[in-house]
Fold this sequence. Notes:
This protein is α+β, with helices and mostly antiparallel strands. The chain contains 9 helices and 13 strands. The protein is globular.
Amino acid sequence: MSLHVAIATYVSTGAYDSNTVDEDALLSKLLEELGISHELLAWSDPDVDWSHFTHVLIKSTWDYFDYYPEFLVWLDKLEALGTSVLNPVGTLRWNSSKNYLLELKAKGYPCVAGQILPKGTAATLESLHDALGFETLVVKPLVSGGAKNTLKITRGAGKDLEDKIASLLQEEDFLVQPYISEIVAVGEYSLIFFNGVFSHAVLKSPAVDDFRVQHYYGGTIQEITPDSKMLASAQVLVASFAKDSLYARVDGVEIDGVFHLMELEIWEGDFHSRAGLCCNVRQLTKCCRSFQEYP
């Protein structure tokens, strides 16, 4: 079969991809070298004829949570066309909302899940602290990324913050989670898999006096080698929930020696080349070769 691949991106405003390596460009160069016909296209572009492609690779649709209803409609359209989507549409839908964390927690997987605050909720901060049993909490949209509207709340934070959260809850569902001190003390681990096979891992650390690991908040990233226990934990998650996926990223922290899932990223395709992992195109070549092998 002659491949013609759409690499799904987004219309960049610099909000989520500033100060980083352009992985889309690296991937495009490698696909060209491998002789794979492809185009870089914004998922939200109404003029794109997606039926024109043999495959759609979801690479950097990093604003999907800003336009979530439209994004779901787009996924429905791809599914109706019968186009081969990487990763699979059903998996993308499941993974696009943090509801899945509560599902994994209920199934017994160690993870930082929390409690959903439905849109319109009028919960007091005190009641949230009591319900979760933690003095410090983190509140974020249920459908979100890039630490958008993510707030750290310490017991007794005051009415101003309570009012701000109440205002945000008028717009969408939120998730309240315990604040994980290990992220500040050590960092958040990311283990990247291609076709279910472990590729590489990094440790993301927040800036001083912050808890967010994203680079645009001052976070740093370095390549690491996970120990066998951490790797085994991540491999189980990938095998259980991303077995048909071209790529998956397992983000987590170690709490009392146990790896706890923070995010199972099966849609965004951020391979963390900011760490310099792709400077010699070693890792992205793995991805492209995996893509050639994928049905």
